[in-house]
Every structure is written in structure tokens, then in C-alpha cells.
From TrEMBL:
Keyword Transmembrane helix assigned: no
Protein name: Purine catabolism protein PucG
UniProt xrefs under PROSITE patterns: AA_TRANSFER_CLASS_5
Aminotransferase class V domain mapped to chain residues: 31-346
Record-listed N6-(pyridoxal phosphate)lysine modification sites: 195
Gene from which this protein is expressed: pucG
Binding site for substrate: 358
Length: 408
């Protein structure tokens, strides 16, 4: 049998994306046991880096083993119990994922919606909170399916004043846009690994405040076999998930070092190294880099003759959405772009599936030479496939001009 051969790709999607070789190298280190003092030191340092990444003083800032939805599910299933009202603003596919997870946790979902490509004004969400009086407001910060960045900076305070908790999915914007958790008074926030942070999928940084921790600990149950008499038994209203129970995970990610699960130590190496690189770059500088390349790509695509999709005042700074040009078939074009050139772009879901493409500039990929190479190939290939009103060289010229005129 032949040994593994993986072809090189230029991944211009909203994740997963390429990983910095320093992260891959970190992940090739020897295995440590999950209670080895070398590893528990690394856990503490990783928690500190997660705090910095979210600009928070929260005690609780640690990763969940599993892809981003594991982080979201852990937060939702720990805070939502049977019959709890949860308000979910929906502007795309990932709002529906929140609904799914809340329903599975037994919550009563209330929604407020906007068509894909739009956001919901914060005043409208606050008015809806007054009407519904939810226990939790669960919201997506970067709705990857439509490329919109939902404003949330007023919602934490408003929810708190109404006795509600905020849960924010910042999976796609984390480390690509600034998310000052304490300043925005957000209770629980979930970041993503395989996007702007550029770590292989499988680990998810989260943070939450003491108010949130106190609430979830009302439903704490430590499993038999590792529970102490102080833990009690709690046979009634306990958190129903075991693996994604934040209260038991607090036991592992603290001095107690509760023997709950076998930590994915190698993923923590990768997370640590990527966070170190991100914090060394600087949270604001990293956000600036994403906006800079986002703008460059957008200007090039527009000059090439493509129409930008959605409300341009609320774009995620790491995804450009364009209307698929006349005469092009979504999956066929993307398939050929991948097969012939090793370049991947994304389609989408729901009401605009087959109508738009999403082109991502996330984390390690958000570099000038990647975008120059992408635009050169993408424009010429579109023209070669007979897309109408496309001028490939105008796109490349606009991109070169942008980079010549604008400093990062
Ligand atoms: C906004 C958002 N939330 C949640 C998810 C789910 O993440 P995962 O596929 O890592 O479980 C994604 C993935 O693309 C996302 O973009």
C-alpha cells in the first residue's frame, strides 16, 4: 500500500484553512499524560492566552475537545434546561444550529429573523428580549453562511439588565475581528480553531464569567466513581450531557484536576502555539490584517466585474460573498477550480445556496501572495469558462494598486 500523499491546496474558504508550520511542528511533540505537571503547566498557560485572546479577566477560559459545535453544545447544554426560554436571532444557517442545540437541550426557542445577507439591528433584538423575557439570548457573531457580522456590542449589557445570559458563537470571527468580551459584557463566548486562529479542527476555546459559572453549577453532577461526598449526588435537575458538562470540565481545568476525560493533549499543543503566535502579532493588529486583505480581495473582485452579495456595512472581515456570475454552475465550477488548480472556495446553504460563492481570507491564509495568486487564477479561469462581463486583468490590476497604495 502506498504511503499517504496529500496534495497541496490554497484554501480560500471560511475554514478549515492552512496551518502555520510552527503549529504543525508543535503538534508533533511527544505525548504527555493529562496530569503530567509539564502538561498542567501548559494548560494554565493556554488558559492565560485564551483570556488574552478574548480580552477578558474571566477565570474560566479553556478549550473543549471537539469541533466548534462541541464548544457551542457544551455551553448550551450546561445553561439551558427543560422549558427554559431562549431567544435566537437568526440570519443564516448557524442560527439554525443554535436552535437545534437548544431544542435538544429541552429549551423553548423564540426567534427573530432577517433574510440572508442582512443583520438584525440591536434595538430590535432588545425589544424582542422585553417581549419574550428569555433566560438566554443565543446569537451568532459571524454568520459564516451569509458572511455577515452581527453587531452585538450592546446586547450583553441589555441582557444582563433583563436578567438574561448571553451566549455568543464567535467561531468564525475569533482572532480575525476584535471581540472584547468584558467590555461588551458577554456572559459566554465560543471561539473557533480551524478558521482565523488556523489550528486543525478538533479543539474549541471558550470563556464565560462567574455569573454564568454560578448558574450552571446549580445543575452540577460529578459522575460516580470520581465524585466526593462534598460533590453530593444531585439526582434530579442535572446537566444531561456528561462529555460536554462544563461543571465537570471546570473540575479538570482547575486545581482539582478532576479525572473526567482523557485530554487531547496534542490539540492543546497546537492551540497553545497558535495562540502564542496570535498574541505576539497582537489582537488588534490581527484584526487589522484581516480587514486589510478582506478589502483588497473585495476591490479586486469588484474590479473584475463580480457583484458583492449582502449588506456591505456589516461584512465579516474574513469572508467576501459574491453573486455567482451568469452562466456559471456552482458546484461544477468549484469542483474544477479545486481539481485543476488546487484552489478551494465555498458555496453556501439555505435560500442563497447555488447563488453565491464565499471566499475566505482567514488566519494563516490572509497574506498578500495568497490573494494575488488566487485572483490571478480565479479571474482567468472564470473568463476561460465563459463567465459574462468578467475582466480578469482589471481584477489583478486593482489588487496590485490596492497593495501598492495601502500599507497594512
Ligand atoms: C459560525 C459557525 N458556528 C459553528 C460552526 C460549526 O463548527 P464545526 O464545524 O467546527 O463544528 C461553524 C462552522 O463553519 C461556523 O462557521
Amino acid at each position: 500500500m502506498a504511503s499517504l500523499k496529500v496534495n497541496r491546496r490554497l484554501i480560500m474558504t471560511p475554514g478549515p484553512v492552512a496551518v502555520d508550520p510552527r503549529v504543525s511542528q508543535a503538534m508533533s511533540n511527544s505525548i504527555l499524560g493529562q496530569f503530567d505537571p509539564d502538561f498542567t503547566d501548559l494548560m494554565n498557560e493556554t488558559m492565560e492566552l485564551i483570556r488574552k485572546s478574548f480580552k477578558t479577566q474571566n477565570k474560566w477560559a479553556y478549550p473543549i475537545d471537539g469541533t466548534s459545535r462541541a464548544g457551542i453544545e457544551a455551553v448550551i447544554s450546561s445553561i439551558v434546561s427543560k422549558g427554559d426560554k431562549v431567544l435566537v436571532p437568526v440570519i443564516g444557517r448557524f442560527g439554525h444550529l443554535l436552535i437545534e442545540l437548544i431544542e435538544r437541550a429541552g429549551g423553548e426557542v423564540h426567534t427573530i429573523t432577517a433574510p440572508m445577507g442582512q443583520i438584525i439591528p440591536q434595538e430590535d433584538i432588545i425589544k424582542e428580549m422585553d417581549k419574550v423575557q428569555p433566560k438566554v439570548l443565543a446569537i451568532i457573531h459571524g454568520e459564516t453562511s451569509s458572511g455577515r457580522s452581527q453587531p452585538i456590542d450592546q446586547l450583553g449589557k441589555a441582557a444582563k439588565e433583563r436578567g438574561a445570559f448571553t451566549v455568543v458563537d464567535a467561531v468564525a470571527t475569533y482572532m480575525g475581528q476584535d471581540i472584547p468580551v468584558d467590555e461588551w459584557e458577554l456572559d459566554a463566548v465560543i471561539g473557533g480553531a480551524q478558521k482565523c486562529l488556523s489550528v486543525p479542527s478538533g479543539i474549541t476555546p471558550i470563556t464565560y464569567n462567574d455569573r454564568f459559572s454560578e448558574e450552571i453549577n446549580k445543575r452540577k453532577r460529578v459522575e460516580e466513581g470520581i465524585r466526593t461526598t462534598e460533590d453530593g449526588t444531585n439526582d434530579s435537575n442535572f446537566i444531561t450531557s456528561n462529555y460536554l458538562d462544563l461543571t465537570q470540565l471546570e473540575g479538570y481545568w482547575s486545581e482539582r484536576r478532576l479525572n473526567h476525560h482523557t485530554e487531547a493533549t496534542v490539540n492543546v499543543y497546537g492551540l497553545y502555539e497558535s495562540l502564542k503566535l496570535a498574541i505576539d502579532e497582537g489582537v488588534e493588529q490581527r484584526a487589522r490584517r484581516h480587514s486589510y486583505h478582506h478589502q483588497a480581495l473585495k476591490e479586486a473582485l469588484t474590479a473584475m466585474g463580480l457583484d458583492i452579495f449582502g449588506d456591505q456595512d456589516y461584512e465579516m472581515q474574513m469572508v467576501v460573498c459574491v453573486d455567482i456570475p451568469e452562466g456559471m454552475q456552482d458546484t461544477e465550477f468549484r469542483g474544477e477550480l479545486l481539481q485543476r488548480f488546487g484552489i478551494e472556495i465555498a458555496g453556501t446553504f439555505g435560500e442563497v445556496a447555488g447563488k453565491i460563492w464565499r471566499i475566505g481570507t482567514m488566519g494563516y491564509v490572509a497574506e498578500k501572495h495568497n490573494i494575488m495568486n488566487f485572483i490571478s487564477t480565479f479571474g482567468v479561469f472564470l473568463q476561460a469558462k465563459g463567465a459574462k462581463n468578467i475582466d480578469a486583468s482589471a481584477g489583478l490590476k486593482a489588487l496590485m494598486e490596492f497593495y501598492d497604495k495601502n500599507e497594512l
